[in-house]
Design a protein that fits this description.
Elements: E1 2-6, H1 11-21, E2 26-31, H2 34-43, E3 46-49, H3 55-63, E4 67-70, H4 80-101, E5 107-113, H5 135-146, E6 153-159, E7 162-164, H6 170-182, E8 185-187, E9 194-199, H7 200-213, E10 218-221, E11 225-229, H8 230-241, E12 245-247, H9 257-260, H10 269-275, H11 284-287
Parallel strand pairs: 1-2, 1-4, 2-3, 4-5, 5-6, 6-10, 7-9, 8-12
Antiparallel strand pairs: 9-11
Helix pairs in contact: 1-7, 3-4, 4-5, 6-8
Length: 293
C-alpha cells in the first residue's frame, strides 16, 4: 500500500514511517522544512513539501495514495489560544483529507486521545469528549469516523497521555521538562491520579494493523500501561535528574493543568483481542530510566 503520512517526523510519526516501510508499504510523507524532508528521505520515504495548513497539498497527497495516516498537530500549544488554533488547524486538515477520499473505500487513520471516565478505565466504546479544552479534537475525529457511511474506511487510534521512547515524549516528557526548568519534579494534586502510556514503537505497530485491517468507523486504544500514578512518574524523574519530588499547583502546568490532575486510566482489551496487537516494548516507568541528568 502507498500511504500518505502527515506528522511523519514526530515521536509517533517517525516510528509509524519506519513500521510501514519495514512491512512492505511505501510512504509519501508531508514535510514542511528542509530538515524534515532530509529525515524522511533518509528513512526511505518520498516527500511532499507543505504543512498542515496547505489544504490543497493535503488533498494532493491523499489523491496519490492508497491510504492515509494523519498524525500532524501544531507544536505550539503552551497557551489556551495556541491549543485552540492547533485543534482548529487539525480539524480543517481532517475535513480536507476526508472529503478527498469519500467514495473511494480507501483507509484513513487519524489520532486522538483516550477519553476519561470517572471511576474506571475508559474503553474503545466510550465516546470522545466534545467539550473542554480538547473538545474540538473530539468533534473533528467523530466527524471523520461518521464519513464511514459515505464510502470511506475511516478509523481512529486513541493515544494515551504519554507516548514515550528512550525516556522522552508525552505528558511524562512535559513533567521532565518542567522539572528541569523549575528544579522540582512536581505533580499536581496528591499524585494518585493515573495516566495511561505506550511506547512509540508499539503504537506504530497498531497504526499499521488498523490501516491494513480495521473496519470502517472504528476507534482503537494504543494503551500498553493502563495507568501509572503520576507521583510514581515524578519520582523516577526526580531520581534521574537529582531533584526533589513535590506536589505543585496544577496552575503550574498552564492549559494542561486540569488534564494533568485527572485520573484517566484506559484499557486496550478490545484492541488486543480484535486486532492481535501485543505491546512488547518497555513500560513507561522502565523507559524513564533513560532520562539523562
Amino acid at each position: 500500500m502507498h500511504v500518505f503520512v502527515t506528522g511523519g517526523t514526530g515521536t509517533i510519526g517517525s516510528a509509524v514511517v519506519t513500521e510501514l516501510l519495514g512491512n512492505g508499504h511505501t510512504v509519501l510523507a508531508l514535510a514542511r522544512s528542509d530538515g524534515s524532508a532530509q529525515v524522511l528521505e533518509s528513512a526511505g520515504a518520498k516527500v511532499l513539501r507543505g504543512d498542515l495548513a496547505d489544504l490543497d497539498v493535503l488533498r494532493s497527497g491523499a489523491a496519490q495514495s492508497d491510504g492515509v495516516i494523519s498524525l500532524a498537530f501544531g507544536r505550539d500549544y503552551g497557551s489556551p489560544d495556541a491549543l485552540a488554533q492547533a485543534i482548529a488547524e487539525e480539524s480543517s486538515a481532517l475535513t480536507a483529507l476526508g472529503q478527498e477520499l469519500i467514495g473511494s473505500d480507501r483507509p484513513i487513520v487519524t489520532v486522538s486521545g483516550t477519553p476519561w471516565v470517572p471511576g474506571r478505565a475508559s474503553t474503545e466504546a466510550d465516546p470522545l469528549p466534545t467539550d473542554g479544552p480538547v473538545g474540538g479534537r473530539g468533534r473533528s475525529v467523530t466527524a471523520l469516523l461518521d464519513l464511514a457511511s459515505r464510502g470511506l474506511r475511516s478509523m481512529a487510534v486513541r493515544m494515551p497521555r504519554t507516548v514515550h521512547n528512550e525516556g522522552q515524549g508525552g505528558f511524562a516528557g512535559l513533567l521532565a521538562d518542567a522539572a528541569r526548568r523549575t528544579g522540582v519534579a512536581g505533580y499536581p494534586g496528591d499524585g494518585t491520579q493515573r495516566w495511561p502510556a505506550v511506547h512509540a514503537l508499539d503504537a506504530a505497530v497498531l497504526f499499521r494493523l488498523v490501516l491494513e485491517s480495521a473496519p470502517a468507523g472504528t476507534a482503537w486504544h494504543a494503551v500498553a500501561d493502563e495507568g501509572d500514578a503520576v507521583r510514581d512518574i515524578a519520582t523516577v524523574i526526580g531520581r534521574r535528574l537529582g531533584l526533589p519530588v513535590e506536589e505543585v499547583p496544577q496552575e503550574s502546568f498552564g492549559p494542561f493543568g486540569p488534564i494533568f490532575a485527572m485520573d484517566q486510566p484506559a484499557s486496550s482489551a478490545r484492541t488486543r483481542d480484535a486486532l492481535g496487537w501485543q505491546p512488547t516494548r518497555p513500560s513507561l516507568l522502565k523507559d524513564l530510566e533513560n532520562i539523562q541528568p
